[in-house]
Amino acid sequence: MNKVITVNPYSMASYYVDMFFDDIKLSNATCFFTKRKDKIYLVTNWHVVSGRNADTKKCLNEMGSVPNKLRVYVPREGENSTISYDDDFYMDVDLIDRDGNELWYGMQKNGRMIDVAVIPLHEMKGSYITVEDAEEPFNEQIDLEVASEIYIIGFPFGKQTGYIPIWKRASVASEPELDVDDLPYFFADTATKSGMSGSPVVLYKDRPATIISEKEKRVSKHKTKLVGIYSGRIGADSENKGDAQLGRVWKSHIIQELIDSYESEVLKLE
Predict the structure, then answer these.
(1) 3-state SS of 146-208?
(2) Contact criterion met (CB below 8 Å) for 198 and 115
(3) Which of 224, 264, 267, 268 is the most buried (most CB within 10 A)?
(4) What is the maximum span of the chain, computed from C-alpha positions, in angstroms?
(5) Which DSSP helix (H) or strand (E) runs through 259?
(6) Whole-structure pTM value
(7) Tens digit of pLDDT at every position of the chain (270 positions)
(8) What 3-state DSSP class applies to 25?
(9) Count helices and strands in the chain by DSSP H and E runs
(10) Domain positions in the chain
(11) Which residue from 205, 252, 256 is spatially nearest to 227, judged by alpha carbons?
(12) Do β-strands 185-189 and 112-113 pair in parallel, antiparallel, or remain unpaired?
């Protein structure tokens, strides 16, 4: 008899991504899905979809290539509602249309790039879940504070650990209600690798007591909340700052602002 394996929902809501230019793989990263008004959006970093450094706008690929599609590895649903990941089961997401227009949406603040991008998805594949699906019920307003323990859920080793992500523990290193450099991010104290770019960052801690609703048949053992999108460490490649092992976490409200901007643009075109 096969053993039933239980996987945390947040582990099922973070996805491995390969960036391609045509059939040439450029790099890998992480993404997740969010749902707004019955529409699914892919969320990752601006530098992942643009192939450029969000601070300097310089091309990240040494050959000057930028991606024109993302390959997202999603699970396949099998018999008895079982799921599995396969190298040959994935969803390709175009970044550029036939006319050369970008299919992803980003934004700037004070002339500087916010390192978050969303892609509206018109077709889905596989047994995916959104980051909202992963959140436990009965989550009251949870305050994020400096020194709070958070988790960056992504793929620092590429596919070496398969398609189930690594949970990298971190702590909030700057006051989360304040913006850093007048941009909507805070610092997390952690050491990570490049493949974690685009990872969801969550607050996840035990409740003092489990909440059970027999009427709704729902249970919550943890306080959970998406608090941001991870975009890499500062100073990792800088001789001036050195590697302080401080990562940028872009605040989660940016997702809604990007979607609002996209929807207003679509409405103008209509």
Answers:
(1) CCCEEEEEECCCCCCCCCCCEEEEEEECCCCCCCECCECEEEEECCCCHHHCCCEEEEEEEEE
(2) no
(3) 224
(4) 59
(5) helix 253-269
(6) 0.93
(7) 566 678 899 999 999 999 999 999 999 999 999 999 889 999 999 999 999 999 999 999 998 899 999 999 999 988 777 888 999 999 999 999 999 999 999 999 988 999 999 999 999 999 999 999 999 988 767 789 999 999 999 998 788 778 999 999 999 999 999 999 999 999 999 887 778 999 999 999 998 888 887 766 788 988 999 999 999 887 655 444 555 689 999 999 999 999 999 988 875 665
(8) strand
(9) 4, 16
(10) 9-269
(11) 252
(12) unpaired
Number of residues that this document lists for the chain? 270
- The label of the residue with tokens 């100073």 reads 235
Q: And the tokens for 232?
A: 């890499």
CA distance 71 to 60: 18
DSSP H/E element including 113: strand 112-113
Distance of CA 26 to the CA centre of its chain: 19
CB atoms inside a 10 Å sphere around CB 219: 13
Here the tokens at position 251 are: 């605040």
CATH of domain 9-269: 2.40.10.10
